[in-house]
């Protein structure tokens, strides 16, 4: 039960981050840091450590200036809670949108949609 509550909190943070990202083109730390903390609590509860594999990639993307720090922290939380697939789908959607628009687009805005689509497809096993 605590796992479900933590995943719900991280999903809610992703929705809030998406709203901020679309309107203000940034994800505030007051949203991304609690989500990241919740994901760190979730790891030992769920026993799923594979989400941490995305962290170095997201850090590198932030260091290279490809995504913002708030986007990186939020997607780290998403990868830990919902799997690397959800974070990768969010990044891929943002990258494709940026390529199509020929300008940067909000990255975190795609996280909730990616989570819902992957869950609907049964890939995340969020129960």
Look at the helices and sheets and give the structural class.
Answer: mainly alpha
Which whole number gives the mean pLDDT? 85
Largest sheet: none
Beta fraction? under 5%
Helix amount: over 70%
Q: From the alpha-carbon coordinates, what is the Rg to the nearest angstrom?
A: 13 Å
Distance between the termini: 10 Å
Count every helix, treating DSSP H or I runs of 4 or more residues as helices. 6
Total strand segments: 0
**Topology as a string of helices (H) and strands (E):** HHHHHH
- What is the 3D form? globular
Question: How would you describe what is shown here?
Answer:
Helix 4 (69-82) packs antiparallel against helix 5 (84-101) and helix 5 crosses helix 6 (111-120). With 127 residues, the chain is mainly α. It contains six helices and no strands. The N and C termini lie close together (10 Å). Helices cover 73% and strands 0% of the residues. The longest helix has 23 residues, at 2-24. The chain is globular.
Could you outline the blueprint of secondary structure elements for this entry?
Elements: H1 2-24, H2 29-46, H3 54-63, H4 69-82, H5 84-101, H6 111-120
Helix pairs in contact: 1-2, 1-4, 2-4, 3-4, 4-5, 5-6
Question: Quick gist of this model?
Answer:
This protein is mostly helical and 127 residues long. The chain has helices at 2-24, 29-46, 54-63, 69-82, 84-101, 111-120.
Task: List the main descriptive attributes of the protein structure presented here.
single chain; 127 residues; mainly alpha; 0% strand
